[in-house]
Amino acid sequence: MRHGTNMSLDPFSDILKFTNAETVVSGGFSAGGAWALRFPAPDKIKFFALIKGGCWLMIDGDDAPVRVEAGDVFLLSAQRTFILASDLSVEPVMATTLFSGAGRKFATLGDGADCIQIGGHVRLDPVTGNLLSDVLPSLIHVKASAPQAAVLKWLLDQMVQEGVADLPGSGLALSQIAQLMFVQLLRAHLSGPTPLAAGWLRALGDPRLALALHLMHADPGRAWHLEELASAVAMSRTTFASRFKAVAGVPPLTYLLNWRMRLAQRALREGGQPVAMLALSLGYTSESAFSNAFKRAIGVAPKRFRDAARFAMSGRRGATAPVLQSSLEELYS
């Protein structure tokens, strides 16, 4: 799908689409008795949902384990090894061993089904994905008892039903449900009590600053002035500039410049629009003005960036992983 430089969606949707965030259900396990499972450091954002029972989550480097109960959903973005266990004193089995074998996505650990878990990962664009991954904490844990958990519980129930029914299109349905679960996890994190790190996600949690982001994302090519944005959110110029920088991590017009450059990168990678037309769509009065701004921000001229990006893309063509098509029936029978 091709995207223009002007975007009409909200900034949250803009950035999820921009990073090509795609959630995939990759498998799960059932466990009983005393058990422990060690996972290698992930190279993707991981998510887990506990369908039944309870267990401990221990992330390498953290001071204390986290208790996870049925209905809880959690997201791991830290590239660190971690353990899921009924008893952390048990010698853990390596997950790579448990799930070894062609096409093996679901496994049994121990002597029963005291605990049932499903999981997956979030694929991000290798170039633009850091726009999302850099603002996530190492762990987002939404408990079943949390106010934001109602929608997650419904999605989890739908995921289970899709797995049990094994209807036509269940693989695609599972992926779509998992995508909605990922969005809801981010929303829960955004509205939760834990302070967020400075960045665009934290700015979206501030109603006034979120309006400023909406305005800039809706029309990135407009010659926005600081006074105009401040007036739109009913703040003084000084207060708006200070608050935006403290919350978003950069001044408002720097945020706008950075977003324009990201839009330019995508357009150059994916489209054939002439550089002069791209420059005008992003608010630059000439191709040379845009080229100079792009080179200062990215380090190379737009045309060189396009050539290099197309060369790199040609080497990756055809390497996209297939969509997972598997049933969850064995876990819920």
Structural write-up:
With 333 residues, this protein is an alpha+beta fold. It folds into 2 domains: 22-123 and 146-194, Jelly Rolls (Sandwich), CATH 2.60.120; 200-315, Orthogonal Bundle (Arc Repressor Mutant, subunit A). Helix content is 44%, strand content 18%. The protein has 14 helices and 11 strands. It has helices spanning 11-18, 95-98, 130-133, 149-165, 170-191, 200-204, 207-218, 226-232, 237-248, 252-270, 275-281, 287-298, 302-316, 329-332, and strands spanning 22-32, 36-39, 45-52, 54-59, 66-69, 73-76, 82-85, 93-94, 106-110, 115-123, 139-142. Strands 9-1-10-3-6-11 form a 6-stranded mixed sheet. Helix 4 (149-165) packs antiparallel against helix 5, helix 8 packs across helix 9 (237-248) and helix 10 (252-270) crosses helix 13 (302-316). The longest helix has 22 residues, at 170-191.
Fold blueprint:
Layout: H1 11-18, E1 22-32, E2 36-39, E3 45-52, E4 54-59, E5 66-69, E6 73-76, E7 82-85, E8 93-94, H2 95-98, E9 106-110, E10 115-123, H3 130-133, E11 139-142, H4 149-165, H5 170-191, H6 200-204, H7 207-218, H8 226-232, H9 237-248, H10 252-270, H11 275-281, H12 287-298, H13 302-316, H14 329-332
Helix pairs in contact: 4-5, 8-9, 10-13, 11-12
